[in-house]
Amino acid sequence: MPKRVLIVCVGNICRSPTAEAILRHRLREQPDNVVESAGLAALRGMPIDPQAEQVLAAHGLSAGTHVARQISPALIEGADLVLAMERRHLEALRVLAPKAVGKIFMLGKWQRNIDIPDPYGRGAAAFKKVYPMIDAAVEAWLPRIYTHA
């Protein structure tokens, strides 16, 4: 079972930190699991987008301490499971770390490999629409991540 999960999007300020916060919350009783996120073209050093944080807060969660960071081959190789938001992200990740192909998947894999659209710059409604998609995708991964004692 995975112990270190890495979630990837483009800027690492909307989707991936949202998924990170949701998954970290769901795995809170599993302190040996580590959940992280990064971006393919990260807005390095930036906090989570305020609209993404508002949607998280509406669900009792927060990523207020999040700081965007750039993906690297070392981050990919150090993870047990890498989850991407879109199909095009899969290819970029596989190019960065070709030996890690077997642990790189779509976050929406269990929903027929759906792409989770980027809400950045599209207003509050886009963030509200994406949240349940991310939440459902995280929920579908739980049985494959959660380690039973």
Secondary structure layout:
Elements: E1 4-9, H1 15-26, E2 34-39, H2 50-58, H3 73-78, E3 81-84, H4 87-96, E4 104-106, H5 124-145
Parallel strand pairs: 1-2, 1-3, 3-4
In short:
The protein has 149 residues and is an alpha/beta fold. It is 40% helix and 13% strand.
Describe the structure.
- The chain has a single domain, classed as Response regulator (Rossmann fold), CATH 3.40.50.2300.
- It is built from five helices and four strands; from the N terminus they run βαβααβαβα.
- The chain has helices at 15-26, 50-58, 73-78, 87-96, 124-145; strands at residues 4-9, 34-39, 81-84, 104-106.
- Strands 2-1-3-4 form a four-stranded parallel β-sheet, sandwiched between helices.
- The longest helix has 22 residues, at 124-145.
- The protein is globular.
- The model has no long low-confidence stretch (mean pLDDT 94).
List keywords for this structure.
13% strand; four-stranded parallel sheet; alpha/beta; 40% helix; 149 residues; Rossmann fold
Q: What's the main sheet like? A: 4 strands, parallel
**Sequence of secondary-structure elements:** EHEHHEHEH
* Count of domain modules: 1
CATH topology: Rossmann fold
| Tally of contiguous helical segments | 5
Helix-strand category? alpha/beta
The CATH superfamily appears as Response regulator
Count the beta strands: 4
Mean pLDDT: 94
Overall radius of gyration: 14 Å
Give the proportion of residues in helices: 25-40%
